[in-house]
Write a structure and sequence with these properties.
globular; 137 residues; six-stranded mixed β-sheet
Length: 137
Amino acid sequence: MIKFGTGGWRAVIGDGFTKANIQLLVQGLCDKIIASGVQHKPVIIGYDRRFLSDIGAKWAAEVFCGNSIGVHFIYRNSPTPLIMFQVKQEKAYYGIAVTASHNPAIYNGVKLGTQGGRDASLEVTDEIVRYIEKMKK
């Protein structure tokens, strides 16, 4: 189950933080991007040093590319503020950081940034969850 909190989603690695759930979350975001007509702008993708963050970022990039949504991939571990700064610099609509932030080491997740380099609002994450729920039906 994908449940957002504080602009992102976090889960225990190997339990909820899995390839399938990352792909599901990113497909929900892709559906939102396409429905909003903003797929012409790439999504910024970055990751931190946590276990599986780099691989999770690649799994996310595959889904975006599969939906013909370009990505600007930061190819080294980067702090979340840098990723959000890049969203602002490139005037992107969305960016993701594969990170669990301050959570214990058994967690990882996806933090979602929006236009201007801000954390995703509850309205944005709720809409992504609705797209995910549609896929499950």
